[in-house]
Amino acid sequence: MDRLTVLSPAKLNLVLDILRKRPDGYHELRTIFERISLADKITLSRNKTNKISIRCAHPHVPKGPGNLAYKAAMMLRNDFSISEGLDINIIKNIPVAAGLAGGSSNAAAVLSGLNCLWQLGLGNSQLVNYASRLGSDVAFFLYDTSFALGTGRGERIKPLGLKVKLWHVLVTPKVKMLTADVFARLKLNLTNKKDNVNILLPFLRKGDLERLAGALSNDLEPAILSLRPDFIYLKKKLLDAGATGVCFSGSGPSVFACVGSHKHALSLRAKFDRRYTQSFVVSTL
Ligand code: C5P
Description:
By secondary structure, the protein is an alpha+beta fold. It is built from nine helices and eleven strands. Strands 1, 2, 3, 4, 5, 6 and 8 form a seven-stranded mixed sheet that branches. The chain has a four-stranded antiparallel sheet with strand order 9-10-7-11, sandwiched between helices. The longest helix is centred in the middle third of the chain and has 16 residues, at 102-117. The chain is globular, with a radius of gyration of 19 Å. Residues 26-27, 29, 135-137, 153-154, 179-180, 183 line the site of cytidine-5'-monophosphate.
């Protein structure tokens, strides 16, 4: 096999609880990940050079070592003393630096794709090990599950075997937000900290959309809004337009709404001005 094409989906965080700052500078968190239908397409092609190259038409995607997909390939290539080169072609549909973990998902797709293409024989726990060295959100994408509980930095994954399918409108302002900048603005208030994961989980298990929508939460929201106070209007606009629940995903600026049907999602999306935002109708994958 000389070439392999894989889908690389985005995620949403239905809940993001930040528990404490750790001695290593990261934050201990608890989250529920949802894999969604918005996806990049990655083609891995062996080549005769001894280089790894990234091709992507999106201007904000790094083409060298700043790209997690490049780092993932480099790690495997070094560890397994692979001498041949590799082209990584990324068709970018997921907004960049937007709280959707597009770069992390690309890295996971490269890890599992190269495991096949280079016939490395790595098991899932070994791939997860590589994933956690690359970033906190990478490991989730190595599990074949629509929903998962994430703990630790977000890299410890427990798949939730749920068959629920949710519909969302996802709105992403055309502004990049760096995760580290958002975390740096976080003011931890740990008094009476609610266990938002366990509040939401029963509603997700039952597919109780109304209660689920009311239980969405993200502890990074005050930090996101301290960087961009105007984004509160985005949430308000979705709610005013009839969304049942609205929440930021990850470190933002993407905001998503839960809606009851594909049809409702389409009519809601039509209300967003394309000059300032990118908007998508997505479902659980
Ligand atoms: O792990 P990742 O490289 O995606 O994290 C980017 C940045 O986000 C980290 O450097 C850190 O500042 C912050 N972060 C954190 N706690 C986490 C995950 C990320 O503080 N659990």
